[in-house]
Amino acid sequence: MCRAVVEQGGEEVAEGINSGIVYLMAFPYVLVAIGIYLIYRNWKKSGM
Predict the structure, then answer these.
(1) Confidence of residue 18 (pLDDT cuts 50, 70, 90)
(2) Between the CA of residue 17 and those of 6, 8, 31, 40, 45, what are the distances in Å?
(3) Which domain holds residue 29?
(4) How many domains in the chain?
(5) Are 5 and 13 in contact (CB under 8 A)?
(6) What is the distance between the alpha carbons of residues 9 and 20, in angstroms, rounded to a whole number?
């Protein structure tokens, strides 16, 4: 389905879809990085 939309929509549509894919791929990594930072910060505070 996405391929058909890209083929009909042209280059602008393809760039938009690619940007959306990159956003969806990056979001989980950002969440994991924030979680690791928070765990590290709490670990440092406790003095372990």
Answers:
(1) confident
(2) 8, 13, 22, 35, 43
(3) 2-46
(4) 1
(5) yes
(6) 15
